[in-house]
Amino acid sequence: MVKFALALPLRRSVWQVLPARYWVVADQATVSGTTFLTNLFVARMLGLSTFGEFSAWQMGLLLLLAAQGALITQPMQVVLATVPATNRAAYRRALLGMQGGFGVAAAGLATGAALLLRPQAGAVLVAFLVYLATAILQDTVRKLLLAEDRVPLALLTDAVSCGGQLLALLAWVAAGRSATLAAVFWVMGLTTLPALALGLPALLRDRSAGPGWTTFARQHWQQARWLLPTAALQWLSGNVLLVLAGLSTPLATLGILRLAQTIMGVFNVGLQAAENYVLPRLSLSLRRSEAEFRRQRARLTRLMLGLAAGPLLALALLADPLVRWVQSAEAAHSSVLRWCCLLYVVILLVYPLRLTVRLLPSARPYFVGYALSIGFSVLSARWLLTHYQATGVVVGWIGAQLVLGLYWSLILSRRPSFQHPHG
Predict the structure, then answer these.
(1) Contact yes or no for 157/165 (Cβ under 8 A)
(2) pLDDT in tens, 307-352
(3) What are the record keywords, sorted (predicted)?
């Protein structure tokens, strides 16, 4: 008993040594790192063609997650700060209720799309639906925990899910068993269940009364009415060139592009942390003081650029051996990875503008920006794919980001409170 009494304050102090934002980055690193390793496992063990098929399923999941973000998690990150403490329990229940309804709709859409496009993919479809159901629910649970500053629990749930997934895949490799795409989805789905068993009860423990779900749904809709079409355009902005490449070239080409995205996905750790943790705090700081908001935004920009500079340079220099290690026959495509390094420099410069636009009273500029971005992608797609193939897709992504940055800079320049997002 004495040992327990001494250990408990020690465990608490571990979380207090570093600010919460660093634990948020650790949480995102856990999720992104597991995605990174899983993608490498599929690419190396199953080949680039199967990895291209895996990526096609993943792109569908990302589209559904984008819609979920527009309807549920992104409005939550802004609305939560306006909900009184006495109504937080009711808000959590309403949020998870909306999530349940969305999950049923998402499963129906995924089934219909899969049967239409790949009628023979029955075994893969069943496994994917299990993965889909658990992945989208865990996404909402973790983002709500992060927004409420319950970072240790969010990190624990993700560590359980990701740790279980990696252990299962490692055991697979050690046993020397042949892998299938359906089996990979089963592993990814079932290892998320213990994480949900930890996170959901903590969110539903408080049963205090509050407003009905319709009150919160109306608040969400004020944001979602622009965010939903924006989410579709945002997905298309990043994936329309991938879709066209997948339709007009072998699946291996799609696999090469997704492999480059996988390797570059390490840098999504900071970006996702900013979206999940910093945005609600930027919203609070703006409500308190515009000067505080500008200082906090400038610190975020410097931090992201400083952390990314070294790894991006190293990745550009090591592009050849990295691609050769995954699949030696595709080493000639290492230039795709170098272009991705330039892409992420542009993304980091545009990101503070993105967060600032999210805090405007209307989400219309967010929507229009992505409409212009996808317009550029569609108009340039044929020329880029014809002349530059896989590299052309990355060049198109860079151009789309520049269009976003230029438009959002113009919008914010007309609003004195939001000027100078980089300082």
Answers:
(1) no
(2) 788 888 888 888 888 777 766 666 666 788 888 889 888 998 898 8
(3) Cell membrane, Membrane, Plasmid, Transmembrane, Transmembrane helix
